[in-house]
Amino acid sequence: xxxxxxxxxxxxxxxxxxxxxNLNSNCGLVELWVNMDDGRKPVYEQMREDIQIPxxxxxxxxxxPEDLCLVCISDTWHRARMVSIQGETCDVFLIDQGLPHSTTxxxxxxxxxxxxxxxxxxxxxxxxxxxxxENNWPEIPTKFLLSLPGKKFKGLVQHVLMPDRTILLDIPNxxxxxxxxxxxxxxxxxEFKSLVQxxxxxxxxxxxxxxxxxxxxxxxxFYPELLTNTLELVNVTEVINPCNIFCKLQVFSKAMKILxxxxxxxxxxxxDLGEAQPLTRGAPYAARxxxxxxxxxxxxxxxxxxxxxxxxxVDEGKIEFVPVGDIRPxxxxxxxxxxxxxxxxxxxxxxxxxxxxxxxxxxxxxxxLNKKLVAKFKQQNLSLNAYHVILYADDDACVNDCFTKMxxxxxxxxxxxVHNGPIPSLFLSxxxxxxxxxxxxxxxxxxxxxREETFPxxxxxAVNNRTDGLATSGVDDAHIKESSEHPxxxxxxxxxxxxxxxxxxxxxxxxxxLNVGSSDNVKVSLIESQQKFWCQPPENCDSLRHLMQDLQNxxxxxxxxxxxxxxxxxxxxxDNMWYxxxxxxxxxxxxxxxxxxxxGQTHTVPLQDVYPIDPAFLPLSSQAFQCCLxxxxxxxxxxxxxxxxxxxxxxSVDVATSSNIGLKCTVKAVTSDEEGLLLxxxxxxxxxxxxxxxxxxxxxxxxxxxxxxxxxxxxxxxxTYDLEVDAKENVWITHSETVNLFYCQLDRNLNxxxxxxxxxxxxxxxxxxxxxxFELDSICFAKFTDNQWHRGQVVEMSPKIKVYFVxxxxxxxxxxxxxxxxxxxxxVARSVPVQAIPLGLFGVPTEVPQEVNKWFxxxxxxxxxxxxxxxxxxxGKLLVDLFAGxxxxxxxxxxxxxxxxxxxxxxxxxxxxEHDCVPNKDCLNQELTNVSVLTMMKDLKLHSNNEPxxxxxxSPQSITNTYAQEFEHEKTVDELKKTSDFMDKEMEDxxxxxxxxxxxxxxxxxxIVNVCIYKWPKISQNRxxxxxxxxxxxxxxxxxxxxxxxxxxxxxxLAQEAxxxxxxxMFPETLGPGSPCLAQFSSxxxxxxxxxxxxxNDAFRVLFIDYGNESEADVxxxxxxxxxxxxxxxxxxxxxxxxxxxxxxxxxDDVYDDFYNLLVNKPLKLTVFNMNNHSKAAVPQYAVEIExxxxxxxxxxxxxxxxxxEELIPIDPPEKETFLQNIQTESxxxxxxxxxxxxxxxxxxxxxxxxxxxxxVYASCIVxxxxxxxxxDNPEELSKVSxxxxxxxxxxxxxMFPETLGPGSPCLALFSSxxxxxxxxxxxxxDNTFSVLFIDYGNESDVDIxxxxxxxxxxxxxxxxxxxxxxxxxxxSNGxxxxDVYDDFYNLLVDKPLKLTVFNMDDHSKTEVPQYAVEIExxxxxxxxxxxxxxxxxxxxxxxxxxxxxETLQDIQTESSMTHLDVSxxxxxxxxxxxxxxxxxxxxxVYASCIVxxxxxxxxxDNPEELSKVSxxxxxxxxxxxxxMFPETLGPGSPCLALFSSxxxxxxxxxxxxxADTFSVLFIDYGNESDVDIxxxxxxxxxxxxxxxxxxxxxxxxxxxSNGxxxxEVYDDFYNLLVDKPLKLTVFNMDDHSKTEVPQYAVEIExxxxxxxxxxxxxxxxxTEGxxxxxxxxxxxxQDIQTESSMTHFNVSxxxxxxxxxxxxxxxxxxxxxVYASCIVxxxxxxxxxDNPEELSKVSxxxxxxxxxxxxxMFPETLGPGSPCLALFSSxxxxxxxxxxxxxDNTFSVLFIDYGNESDVDVxxxxxxxxxxxxxxxxxxxxxxxxxxxxxxxxxDEIYDDFYNLLVDKPLKLTVFNMDDYSEAAVPQYKVEIExxxxxxxxxxxxxxxxxxxxxALEDHLGSG
Length: 1905
What we know:
The protein is of the alpha+beta class. It contains 37 helices and 98 strands.
């Protein structure tokens, strides 16, 4: 699907042979010349051989640049392109070698034209995504790259850049190697592509791109080039990171200030915004910033969803989002001033794809932002589009050097040219010395984000309890909880008040090591015990060493100024060194206890050795954090850890330290110690066994059940539960706020949860002692929504107490009575980690619609899922994929969001056109219901009611799931409890359908429908788009693809990558019509985005949405789509030409090829007018206008358009008022848009009549009493109209006007008979001719397209002078006119003054004008009464006419100027064919032409000559053009010619019925029936009509259908007996067949000497016994049967089915059968089912397979009472064997014979039964309790319930005694005795039986009488 011939498809993997390497020194790119090894070598060898014979050598100075030619080098000719000619010297480019060459014209020649068809053998590629770190490639990578020619690689084509034919080729083996060498860096794909495009533009500048013209251009900014190695005074305006800062030249500050003021004045005073223009990305604009000032800006991104645009202020280097209303076109005068703010990068700080931390960037901002500095511009880096600079502060200090010393190894490879000024360590100065003052004063700089390389590193030293111990990169031991037991000391030192830790200092340390689950190497700095030791990370060892040195230097000679801080500097008297410390306790004495925050030791020191800390020593976070081992012995007995254990631990630490490896520790949980300090519970991973295992080996337990060490704490423990990436767990969702934040509990931790619950219950049953009032963050017990006590934490005290339930992740307001503190002895409740784990769905956007979040909460809370951990988020949250069985919830959420986005897009587009289809919002709700997680989880279980878990109570609503400190809820527990009943019902409803839903998922993927998931293009109306056609079917269905293929290339590459992923086997089962997927295109084996159309067996029919073509893809060749592919808009969109309504016309057959050739492979300009949803493809379709090579395609193909002959536009009937309404159509309804096809139907005014008022008129056009026109007796007005018409008709025609005309359009038309212009109304257009109705007279005529004109408003407003009439009192549906009426009616009215009275008005369906029912008085006589004698009311249903006369509507002369009307036949009698002339008791020689059964078969005369004549006439007449009005005259019984689809021949036929555009007809010369399209019927000539039908309908005499039925074997035997044999037939009598409206003859047939009637007797079953009497179907319809080409004989399949077709059960009398009762009504009617589930299952499977087959449309017509069939049971949508009871309209009442229940089934939901199913005995049979004769008694009312309860769902033993036929159901009924649980049911039922006591008395009385 690549649209660039000769080049590989983007995204494809190709083998290449490198022929040459060019290392570009200008921009660091690697250029490769390669041969595409695609098997075309023989083709190129043949081409090289062919060009050795040139066409002609150059003669003189032939040729010019860009000409293709051949060049001779060393006696070999090569293909070349001329580059330049200088005298005799010619420079050419060798096409197949990719090399330049100089030669003379003597060595040049012209080649044959076909020798240049092959693309170049060698293509130019650029090694993708790799850029040299320096302009010149160093020696090592140069040597490696130059060694590549001749080697073969596989490369991935990322992009093909046109017109340069440059391929961006990714060769991972090459690019990875040079990046590992450290000489190149990887770039993002899009960023690299932009860089290459800039390079190509610079290499080949166009005239417009010439640098010298930049000042004259007013569509871009101009950046003057700077001289390198010069010093400039600059102002730093923006700092993003060290490689992206912006410096403004200070010398232009005044000019920039003036420019700013001018812009402010210009745009504030200008109120005229002008016409809104579309915004262009990358164009210059004026933008008002958030400061209210106007700036010169560059547009980066177009309008976002919130109406804002992203702009770049070029004079400040800042990016802002501003409202679209604050964007103005930039005036040209503001472009004259160059941009003097340059992007820069600190010299010596290399990018290397480093992710700079916030702390580093903030620190750099403190040095540079808004400062005036001296900048030395070293060089320009084209790849970064930035200057490398060295910046100097006011004191000549080098800022680059200062920063690189601070960030250490980040400044790898520091340039030797960087000035290294004398900067003291850490920018600290001794007293009185000024150095980097600005830096010194930044005391509160937040550098917590600095990595471990914060300070320059020297040598690592491992020391325990010494000052140069190891440091950590961010673990804060200063996170202290304030409490009454440990108040912060208030200490005065040297008269200064020292305060405790302020809250903000808690953030002074990096919290990276605080996260549960993180792992790192550490050094142990202090061991107190296994439950308390202090660790340092080794990365910051040098930073800590420098810090300690600076501390000693600084405090050795300096007393700090007055500072009030939380961290102090303390001198340790043991080694006389200074340490950063914090005060632990104050003894209110001259000494205090302090802890060294970088080592962990605690010392008692005198107050005089405690000093406030200088802020310069704060950036480095505290370097020691407190730990305890994870697998310690029971921590409730710490003394059990012996000295030996501690010694072993110390020895292990010493071993690890001496080996320079360190201990590998993983933080398993975070708690706090008795002082409130954070305590990390760590698990040692150091080989071989791990230190943690030393003291605890024998006490190890399963990790999920381990309890953390017990420490008295007012915080809960946290744990990761060993959840790493790729871990899979079963989880219960406990709470959800959004799909990005919800909580779960691990299913494997339920025992821990129950243990906690048991502990809580035990503690609360004991006497409680409170520890005092609650405080914020106190841990507690509180009542949850299940009215049970659970663990919580107080998060708010006022106005209500709010508790965060830590095991559910839910915050609720609680009453004071529902909360209590946790006793200190509640060790289990305190120590078991919190059970609620925060989760978020992976790959789901942050912003999610509320309805999606609510659906997720309602569906997920309280349910179990399988989660797969994909990544770890912030604050311990896990990003997961969530599954409910095969359902991927992540995908489901993304689909729902895409659907909502699509609906929004559709709504926006639909506002542009009143005809656009807006998706129904209910569709979303319906889908949420249908695919609810609740209905998908049949096997999920809830906890039993006795389990103390909140999952027992369904979640009341979408409850907030949050951390206690972040989210709050106002709803109280009591309020939540009120809604629990509602959720109970919702859960039950959801699960009740689970079985059906699952079955639907597995068996019918179409049930899960995801329509329009892709984000379809937002195409602005009336905006021109440049496109190509990608798929052309016709003017109403073609796909267009954007000309810019950049996004298409990206999509293609992503698709190939995604297609290589292994298929999820369950994924194809989730696909239904409209579902998005990846599908492999079989023609090129590439993967493309697609949308499912339908599924057929193991293949999907898909639509490739980036191209528009359709294909079938095997189920194995579909894959799921990633979110990135799903979010990219389809690159093609469906179009139809605007102005052509399919319902009002059709295309000529020639249009398709011409339309295709007109558009294919040509650049097009397309304008969208409106959008509709394409009903079949489930994609939007755009009505467009296309321009191709300057021609409007819509206008060019008008000649192929055929408007519908009769376009019926309904007109609302006038309201009942005194006057019939005269409705003026507004003048603005006449639309002037070209190519409009339809115009309002009735644009003239309607006549203004008063009811019952007589009008004086003349008849102007007379057809018959139901159609004639009257003209007002107002010659003056008619004369005025005529004069105006002549004047306007003489005006020149608007050539476009005829194209706007459609049925009903008003116009002026030239009447050919008198060459006068008259007002007219269009009826239809055929080619270049209009059929028009002259509305002032009523006659019709054909007018050439040149002879129509537009109407002026004055003529349009004048009421028509004639109006259509019909004689009142004659209903066409109830009668017809005698043939004599036409002449007499005409003669009665013509040229006579008439008095006319209007009674009512209807719309005439054919002419689109109103028609008035009138009474006419002529010469004192009422015409209506005079016409009565010609009227024939319909006395009978069908009137037989032997010799029908042709009834032609007269051609009538009106005035001399309006001559004749040719009117086609309108009415045809129903039974027009002659009846066969058969004599009773006379034998006829015939053949059977159509055989259904003995009661319905057709016989054909043995007269082939007559049949041949009829056939010849039929073919001749059938080839004539159809009278388009004729099909409208046809009704049941009408004669016609019809085309038989099987042999494409015309035959005489009779209409049975019409459905839409199809007639069901009976071929009267053969007897078969067929469906015929409306286009394939013709009228019959009189000669054909008069010929008697050559076949007639028969029925075997002697078999009364009401008194019996046929055995099933009769059908085949009767057919075989008659088919293809000469027969002798005798007619006895005739009846009319009620359905086919033809006579049916009762006949006796003799075949080969045998009387067929007698032979059939053996198949006849009179209604007596054996088979139940039933009502037989009255309607017996013949199937549409394929005949031979001559239609003489038919192969007829069996049509009718005998009533008792299923086999009867095979019972042995007095033998017990094991059964179940399947349908229980009462003891005289109940069904039993064999206890044979295997057989029942087989029957069910067969039934489902056959039920899915397409229905034979004739089959339902063959069904009657007792007929077997398959029927769909509506309750479970499954197919079952059934037997018809009766039919009412389109519904069958059926009996399901394998169960016994009955149901009503739609006629569409029945299927035929195969022989295999028919032969299987029914699995249920009808029973009646033996011993109870209904004629001799009755049942008590209590019997029904008791009998039902006695039998239902119980195994029964049944004995059959005898069988009767059940008259109503047409099935046998068995008298049975039943044993249930050892009891005889018959005996138990006797107590309910009431016998008739008067039986004997009544018999005696009758006998005596």
